[in-house]
Amino acid sequence: MKEILPQPPAVVRNEVSRIQELFQRNVIPSYGRFELAFTHGKGSYVWDVNGRRYLDLGGGIAVCGLGHANEEITSALIEQSKRLVHVSNLYYTEPQGRLAEQLVRLIGSGHCFFCNSGGEANEGLYKLARKFGHDEGRFEIITAQNSFHGRTLAGIAASGQDKVKKGFEPAVAGFRHVPYNDLEAMRAAISPATVAVLIEAIQGEGGGVTPVSPEYLLGLRKLCDEKKLLLLIDEVQAGHFRTGRFQSWQRILEGVPGGETFLPDGVSMAKSLGGGFPIGAFWAREPYGALLSAGTHGTTFGGTPLGCAVALKILEVIYRDHLADNARATGQFLKNELASLTQKYPGVLKGVRGLGLMIGVELNAGIPAFQSDIKSAAVQFCNRLHAAGVLTIPAGTAVIRILPPLNLSRNEVEEGLRVIESVVSSLA
Ligand SMILES: *Cc1c(COP(=O)(O)O)cnc(C)c1O
Questions:
Q1: Catalytic residue among 113, 132, 234, 335
Q2: Of the listed 131, 246, 262, 271, which one is catalytic?
Q3: Is 8's pLDDT higher than 70?
Q4: Is 234 a catalytic residue?
């Protein structure tokens, strides 16, 4: 007798290949993805669909500042979602006002605008700059080579890397790039049309974790004052206490004469701000926020009570648990240990850069085991770390980034270091 069985339901069966198939059929292939699919996480660990555990030193690209499945974030989400998720920016809500108050307190006298991503936060800064220079016909924004400012049309025009622009010409007008960390190059590039300078205080994506010097920051401030330019800093990746201070320029200028009074004119934020809940923001120094008067800028979801409640909870936990200090101390330990590894295996590791828990490890160009594969050394190194149970993020072709949760423990760091050393020694 013929057996009549119902068709199996079209559900994902926790297999990487099945999930990949779903993507191949239905998702635009704009990302180069690793062959890993994750189902859940806890703290600094995530588990893949096969139940294998990984130590996540990438933190979702500097996003999961309190790690995965943080219970206090979960409660904040639940509590706020029971009251009010969204009402739009036609009305006032308290969480948005309170979050803005916190950011102003942490940065300086000014005002905030809320959006949903880093690219969008930077868009707000471009519009602020254009408004600022509009009556004088000034519109040009100077950014750095190897910078990364997001994937919007203006974002790729702002980014100082050809690979993000290719195929999307014509570029949005009004952006020029100069060598990073070079004050004279910046001075020379300023034209009568220039209105602002935008830099990352630590280049992430494009620069492979390269900080600017304190002299450069102080010099830019003077130069911008002299030429009446807005000084804008993209802190989307380096910000939110990752370096041990709220914003990375504050860390870079620590103890530097004149550093404590330094303020940029605009700052963009996102990534760690919501710990995984999508929220972005920009801060504009007093009085520039007023340039964006009613009706000039907006976004439907920006500053939604749910996102702001989560961001407020994250700040509360960071203060209470002294996570800025942890980022500083744990980051310093990690960097020192990686520097010793570099000395021990100079054929594999070229150098270590960064501040706090934003660290870049540069690989040597000629690692023999990587020569037969066309994939970049950074991607091949990440793949080997995956096989050994650790996640990191490639930057460019030869750097891996370590951007873990700010509450990463000493034990976890030591575990990560053991795995990194095992991979490095296997390549030596
Ligand atoms: C990630 C990043 C962006 C873009 O943020 P999205 O949220 O992806 O739009 C912009 N600037 C820097 C420095 C970044 O690291």
A1: 234
A2: 271
A3: no
A4: yes
Q: What are phi and psi of 359, to 5 degrees?
A: -125, 140
Q: What is the pLDDT of residues 66-101, one digit of tens each?
A: 999 999 999 999 999 999 999 999 999 999 999 999
The three-class DSSP label of residue 263 is coil
- Neighbour-count burial for 193-213, b at 16+ CB within 10 Å, e otherwise: ebbbbbbbbbbbbbbbbbbbe
Please name which of 193, 197, 192 lies closest in space to residue 139, comparing C-alpha atoms: 193
Residue that terminates a domain, selected from 301, 320, 339: 320
Question: Is any ligand 1 atom within 6 A of the Cβ of residue 204?
Answer: yes
Q: Are residues 273 and 137 in the same domain?
A: yes
Q: How far is the CA of 87 from the centre of ligand 1 (A)?
A: 26
Whether the CB-CB separation of 50 and 36 falls below 8 Å is answered with no
Domain span including residue 137: 72-320
Q: Tokens 């040009």 appear where?
A: 140
CATH number, residue 363: 3.90.1150.10
48 is known as an active-site residue = no
Distance 200 CA to ligand 1 centre (A): 10
pLDDT tens digits along 240-285: 999 999 999 999 999 999 999 999 999 999 999 999 999 999 999 9
Supply the pLDDT for residue 15: 84
Is pTM beyond 0.85 here?
yes
User: If you average pLDDT over every residue of the chain, what do you get?
Assistant: 96
Could you tell me the CATH number of the domain that includes residue 174?
Answer: 3.40.640.10
Q: Is 203 in the pocket of ligand 1 (CB under 6 A)?
A: no
For the chain, what is the domain count? 2
